[in-house]
Amino acid sequence: NDVSREYRYLSALRGSAGRERHIVMLTDGVPVLGDPQVRRERALARELGVKVHTVFLGLGECPEVLDEISRETEGAGFVGRPGPDGRLSVRERPMGARRRRGGGER
In whole numbers, what is the pLDDT of the chain averaged over residues? Predict the structure, then answer.
């Protein structure tokens, strides 16, 4: 899939020390191929020190896996929604703001 291909390109950068690496992941949150949790790609990003910034584009609720990816890789999370004028409005998602299922506030 496309995400795996992008991460493979990054693996070629293993020897480039001293530079920060970033990926901006745009998604509607609907997995169509492979592992919806992208476990292998997340592990590779951590191993390579790549910060993954996730951008959810849609009307529904942002999938929790996007927050996990951003948090694990020290990236940022964003959400984009259409405004009343039809233009896209993008804002940063607060990381860690979600409550655990069935656990109440902590």
Answer: 82
